[in-house]
Amino acid sequence: MEEGLSVGEVAAKTGLTAYTLRWYEQVGLLDPIPRDHAGRRRYRLRDVERLDLLTKMRATGMPVREMLRYIELVRAGTHNRRERLELLEQHRTTVLRQISELERDLAVIDRKITRYRGYLDAEQTD
Amino acid sequence: MEEGLSVGEVAAKTGLTAYTLRWYEQVGLLDPIPRDHAGRRRYRLRDVERLDLLTKMRATGMPVREMLRYIELVRAGTHNRRERLELLEQHRTTVLRQISELERDLAVIDRKITRYRGYLDAEQTD
DNA sequence: GCTTGACTTCGAGTGTGCTCCAACTGCGAG
DNA sequence: CTCGCAGTTGGAGCACACTCGAAGTCAAGC
């Protein structure tokens, strides 16, 4: 049995496609994934763990560019952890604002929904 | 003084660009905007009101395609209000799910933030 | 030993939602 | 009258994040 997971297994696990996984590696979000004797990718635990964070970053709307900035900090060593922290904290703030904007905007749509329900109720009682 | 607002005024009011406003009209999200004697758009109250809803739909992630479906229902008359209501309710559900996914994903990032704070505190006390 | 299926690379293509350019028109201020 | 500005059109271009096609490799199962 081979060490590590194949691209297909990681795709299944992360919800990304195999295409996307290769592309993430290509653009530098993932470090070069080790290959087995046949040249096939074998994702290590740390690769999958990184993907865990990366997918959450993406899912919360962080642009790939900024994810890459973060990863480059990670690669540069541990001395820049304050900078990494700041990047994450800033993103956190962005996401919180995002959530509250969604809630605010949804309220407008909710009012519309209420209005339609009113129309339809009125029709009903005609 | 002319009736209605110019494209620039509506842009300022809605936060969309003039380019986008013309494009919305072109793709059918807005009914053809009446022109003044010089051929310039004059947005009526109802156009601006529609934009109010449209921008909230977009801001909450509704694809333009689906917005268009809604607008086509509006154009088709009042008999399909139940269908419009369903579309809005479905979108509402989507947005609520979106919010809770953001919260869930943010929690992962928060854990990372906490870890970095831990590292940095430890460093501090070295 | 052949087929099947998952993998490889490279580069091109796609969908979405704008965004902009070029060339032109018309209005108001000075 | 001229300037500058805001508007017009049609069509091209762009950023982003994938997504896919083609052609080939390899190993396992029948």
TrEMBL record, chains A, B:
The superkingdom listed in its UniProt entry is Bacteria
Which SUPFAM superfamilies does UniProt cross-reference here? Putative DNA-binding domain
Keyword entries, A-Z? DNA-binding
Q: Which organism is it from?
A: Catellatospora coxensis
Q: Which GO terms describe its molecular function?
A: DNA binding; DNA-binding transcription factor activity
Domain HTH merR-type: from-to ranges: 4-73
Alphabetical list of InterPro entries matching this protein: DNA-bd_dom_put_sf, MerR-type_HTH_dom, MerR_fam
Protein name as it appears in the record: HTH merR-type domain-containing protein
